[in-house]
Amino acid sequence: MQFGVLIALSISTPLAWLHAQPIAQPIAHDLVLELGAMQVRQPTIATQSGALFSVVASGVWSRFSADAHGVFVNTSGGALASQLGLSANAAIPRIDAARFEIGTALTSFGAFSNPRSNRGTQATLLARQHLQRERSGVFVGTGVGRAAGFDRQARASLVETGAWASHRTLTASLSAQRAMTTDWLLMEAAGYVLSRPARAYHVQDAALSIRAQTSLADVFVAHSWRVGLGATTGSSRALSAGATWHAATRWSLSFSAGAQLADIVRGLPESRLSSLSVRWRRSPSPDGAASTRDPLRSGILYTSARNADLGSPEATLEVTNDSTALRLRIVAAPNDTVEVAGSFDDWVPYRLAVDGTHHSARIHISPGAHRVAIRVNGGAWRAPRGLVRIADGLGGENGVLIVP
Amino acid sequence: MSAIPGRGTVRRRAVFLGLLLATGTWRVLHAQPARVTRELSEVADGRTRAMLSAVVRDAEANGIPLAPLYGKIREGTAKQSPPNRITDAVRALATRLATSREALASASSVDEIAAGAEALLIGVPASALRQLRQVWPAQLLTEPLGVVTELVAYGVSASHATARVRELMESGATNAQLVGLSTRVQSDIVSGTAASAAFERRARSAFGVLSAQQAKTGSSLLAIPPRPD
Question: Among A213, A314, B35, B219, which residue carries the largest CB count within 10 Å?
């Protein structure tokens, strides 16, 4: 391979911020810029160092979020790599815990010295379906990739499944993936060979990662294992780690080092790399899972952001100078019966009015702490989305509402 | 010379007064049972009604506010919860109300004691309630306790939430500022930030705001900047 560049993919976790805070606007935008240096070593290429620059723009709507990213790497040898990508998250109607995630990227490799030669392009499409609650989730996904250039064409695909769980500051994730590729150059450089004639290389991967998030820093460790399947022989593993220090509200410093297995779908070669970068974020809010974004992990759908609650908020507070009202907006069929009850009305169930595809109500709330629950068609009482949930002592849960 | 009432008039007055007294006495004697009966009228199970009545009477005898207990009974019946769950919930609430009242001192309002009981339910220790009372001995703690409860529900540890809320209260934070802090923490958590990290970051921002306000008004600044746990 003429290029000795490994792209450090700045992948912003799709925020999937699918419900607004009770009093704020439902739309949010953010911009993250990252500038740094990296050193990469590949099996057949001499160690190279280079600079990286990335920009990620993200937008959040009530049931949808999307981000676009661009990553540019230039090595000391004059090689250039770039990636442009889009990813999005969408809530699944009527299934609170479901979220669909999709991403696409176009990766290009080349050399400044002769832009017309040694140029390869990889197009990737990935999709995941998530089911998640506040502190855990599972997902299944699939992806395809097409490579062109370097006097060859290749195709790749994968299926994956995984799960994650979090407790206080720690989040652990485990995933398994089965992939195939016709990119013999990529696989043989990684030490995999075909023991007999076959149409493609097949491998099985497993990956484990643990991340800790605090107000000062985020730290992660990730380990991957790979083994060949069928005619594909070979095995490998890779360990990487990194940390991000939140130096200020908008600024953070990231460091990562370790090994990365060859990325089957994106056509990135196996390598060892280290990087140090400075990140600036336009929004003053704390960086979420994206703060532990690992430049070694070339996944568009990297962290599958944990979301406490999906879907549009069902309960919001409307605060004026002299009063506060609870606005409820529940998605339900027009002939459904939606009721609300709470401590503000002595738990007398109150039926919401039908408003097109929603059932809604506006209830004046006096100052203090209140509990509220809703139910549909006489079913189980639950906390409306948008409010923090607390056990009711009766085997169920209520939404918490505090009015100053 | 005033008229002296005749014997018949006196007798009628005595009967009238006797009836009046008897009615009033009857009302006094049956006031508590009548109220308990009304609150429990929605509870279909007779045995559960009797058990709940006993719980309520015990609570009243111990000086525990009854409104939260009646609220829990109403909640249980509205949610059509099994009778045994309602009884267990009311009994547990009575215990928590007693603990909350003791921790917050007997001069607390009903809402404040109820807020303390909610905090105890979610795992906030009684010592935390006492700490907050020490900071605001004369101000109602209903909102601060509600904020601590919310934060713990989000996933922030009880000790962390109590410590920072206490420090913010000591720094002059208002109820509105505390509630706003909790709201912003919730939005950060939704975006993927760990609860404790989000809370610490927002609390620091709040300290910054309070420090600026104090500097503006000439009040003393915080001597020690907040540090994460």
Answer: A213
